C-alpha cells in the first residue's frame, strides 16, 4: 500500500510521545500515512515552520494558536487545535542556592502544596527572581503568572528553549524555571537544580501540548486530517497502558527524538520523581497524561482560560479573546473523525474549569465517562459563559 507523506514538527520533550509512537508503532502507517518527523530547536522556529508550510502539522504549546487568534506574537495565520497531545508534564525547579535557603527556613519540599511552596519561595528570595520559560505564549508562562499573581515577589520571565534550560540554570542566568519534562529531571541529575512543584499542583489538568495545523490546510485536506487525528489518538491510547512505558521511554531516548536518558524519561512517565540531587523521591499521580479522562479532547473552556489570562496580561478585550480562542478548538473535527475510531465523546464542548476535585462521571455519547480532577491551587472556578 502506498502511503501519503506528511511532515510533522516537534520540539524534543517527553510530551511529543504520541507523535513518535504514532510513527514507530505503526499507527500512522495503518492510516496510510508516512510520517516524517522533523525536530525544531525552539518554539518560535517550530511555529514558523508550521505557518510557512515547512511542515503540515506540529506539536505546539497550547497557548500559541490561541495567542495567534488573539493577534499576539506577530505571526498572521490561523492555526487550528485538532486535539490535545498531553496534559500536565511540566515542573518548576530552583537553583541549588534558592533551594538551600528554603530548606534552611524549614520548607519540606512536599512537591504538592502550591500555596506553601509560594510562601517559602517569597521568604527565601533575596531579590528579583529570574524565571526561565520556553516561550512567551506557553502554559508555563500562564501557570507561573497565575501562581505568583499578587505575591510579594518581584520576578521576570526569560525565554529559553527547553533543552537549554539546564545550562542556563548552571551558568546562573536564571534562578528558577518552569519547563516540560525531562529537562527538569535532567537539571536534578546534573546536580544544578531542585524541583519544587509539578505543574499539576497549580492546575490539575493543564493542557500542555496540542496537535496544531494551519486552518487552510485542514480545510483543503479533510480526509488526511482525519487519518492523522486517528493515528495520534491511537498512539495516545497505547501510551495510556502502563506496560508500554518502558518501550515508550526507549523510543523517546533516541537522539533523533528527545535524546535524554531512558531512566529519566521513564521516571516522568510513571510519576516517580526524583526532586533533588540528594535523591529525594516524590510520587506524582497523573504527572503527565495523554489519554484518560478525555485528556485529548480540545475543550473550548480550557482554551478560554488561557485566552482570559493572556487578555489580562496584554490588556486585550477578554470577551473577544475568549471568542477567538473558542473558534479554533476543532471539537467538530474531533467528534467527526474520532467517533469512528471508538473514542467516547463528552456531551458538551466546554465545562466549568476548576470545579472538579475528584474523578467525576459525566454524560457521554457512549453513556458515561470519567473526567479527572481539574482544580486550581487557589480553588477558583472559571466559567467560560460568565459575563465579562
What are the main properties of this structure?
single chain, 388 residues, alpha/beta, D-Maltodextrin-Binding Protein, domain 2, 2 domains, 6-stranded mixed β-sheet, 5-stranded mixed β-sheet, 16 helices, 15 strands, 38% helix, globular, ATP binding, nucleotide-binding, cell membrane
Q: Poorly predicted ranges (pLDDT <50, ≥5 residues)? A: none
Question: How helical, in percent, are the residues?
Answer: 25-40%
**CATH classification class of the largest domain:** Alpha Beta
Output the radius of gyration: 20 Å
The overall average pLDDT, rounded, is: 96
Q: How many structural domains in the coordinates?
A: 2
CATH architecture level-2 label of the largest domain = 3-Layer(aba) Sandwich
Tally of contiguous helical segments: 16
Largest sheet: 6 strands, mixed
Describe the structure.
By secondary structure, the chain is α/β, with parallel strands linked by helices. It has two domains: about 5-85 and about 205-255 and about 290-345, 3-Layer(aba) Sandwich (D-Maltodextrin-Binding Protein, domain 2); about 90-205, 3-Layer(aba) Sandwich (D-Maltodextrin-Binding Protein, domain 2). It has 16 helices and 15 strands. It has helices at about 15-25, 25-30, 45-50, 65-70, 95-105, 115-125, 140-150, 165-170, 185-190, 215-220, 220-240, 245-250, 260-270, 300-315, 320-330, 330-340; strands at about 5-10, 35-40, 55-60, 80-90, 90-95, 130-135, 155-160, 175-180, 195-200, 205-215, 270-275, 280-285, 290, 360-365, 365-370. A six-stranded mixed β-sheet has the order 2-1-3-10-4-13, sandwiched between helices. It has a five-stranded mixed β-sheet with strand order 7-6-8-5-9, with helices on both faces. Helix 4 (about 65-70) crosses helix 15, helix 11 crosses helix 16 and helix 12 packs across helix 13. It is globular. InterPro entries: NrtA/CpmA_ABC-bd_dom. This is Nitrate transport ATP-binding protein. Its main location: membrane.
Amino acid at each position: 500500500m502506498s502511503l501519503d507523506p506528511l511532515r510533522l514538527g516537534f520540539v524534543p520533550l517527553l510530551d511529543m510521545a504520541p507523535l513518535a509512537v504514532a510513527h514507530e508503532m505503526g499507527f500512522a502507517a495503518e492510516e496510510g500515512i508516512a510520517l516524517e518527523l522533523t525536530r525544531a530547536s525552539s518554539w518560535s522556529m517550530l511555529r514558523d515552520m508550521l505557518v510557512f508550510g515547512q511542515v503540515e502539522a506540529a506539536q505546539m504549546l497550547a497557548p500559541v494558536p490561541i495567542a495567534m487568534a488573539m493577534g499576539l506574537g506577530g505571526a498572521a495565520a490561523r492555526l487550528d487545535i485538532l486535539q490535545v497531545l498531553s496534559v500536565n508534564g511540566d515542573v518548576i525547579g530552583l537553583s541549588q542556592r534558592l533551594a538551600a535557603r528554603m530548606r534552611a527556613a524549614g520548607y519540606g519540599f512536599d512537591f504538592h502544596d502550591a500555596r506553601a511552596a509560594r510562601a517559602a519561595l517569597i521568604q527565601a528570595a533575596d531579590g528579583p527572581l529570574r524565571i526561565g520559560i520556553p516561550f512567551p505564549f506557553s502554559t508555563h508562562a500562564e501557570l507561573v503568572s497565575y501562581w505568583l499573581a499578587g505575591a510579594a515577589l518581584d520576578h521576570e520571565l526569560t525565554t529559553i528553549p527547553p533543552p537549554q534550560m539546564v545550562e542556563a540554570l548552571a551558568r546562573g542566568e536564571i534562578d528558577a524555571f518552569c519547563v516540560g519534562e525531562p529537562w527538569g529531571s535532567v537539571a536534578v541529575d546534573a546536580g544544578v537544580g531542585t524541583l519544587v512543584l509539578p505543574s499539576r499542583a497549580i492546575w490539575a489538568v493543564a493542557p500542555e501540548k496540542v496537535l496544531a495545523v494551519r486552518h487552510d490546510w485542514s480545510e483543503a485536506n479533510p480526509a488526511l486530517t482525519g487519518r492523522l487525528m486517528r493515528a495520534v489518538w491511537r498512539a495516545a491510547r497505547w501510551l495510556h497502558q502502563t506496560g508500554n512505558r518502558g518501550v515508550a521511554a526507549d523510543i523517546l531516548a533516541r537522539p533523533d527524538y528527545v535524546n535524554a536518558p531512558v531512566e529519566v524519561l521513564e521516571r516522568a512517565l510513571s510519576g516517580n520523581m526524583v526532586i533533588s540531587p540528594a535523591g529525594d523521591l516524590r510520587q506524582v499521580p497523573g504527572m503527565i497524561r495523554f489519554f484518560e479522562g478525555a485528556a485529548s479532547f480540545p475543550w473550548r473552556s480550557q482554551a478560554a482560560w488561557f485566552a482570559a489570562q493572556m487578555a489580562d496580561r496584554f490588556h486585550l478585550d477578554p470577551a473577544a479573546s475568549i471568542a477567538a480562542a473558542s473558534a479554533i478548538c476543532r471539537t467538530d473535527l474531533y467528534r467527526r473523525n474520532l467517533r469512528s475510531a471508538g473514542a467516547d465523546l463528552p456531551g458538551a464542548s466546554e465545562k466549568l474549569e476548576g470545579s472538579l476535585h475528584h474523578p467525576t462521571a459525566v454524560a457521554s455519547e457512549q453513556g458515561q465517562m470519567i473526567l479527572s480532577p481539574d482544580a486550581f491551587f487557589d480553588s477558583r472556578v472559571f466559567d467560560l459563559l460568565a459575563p465579562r
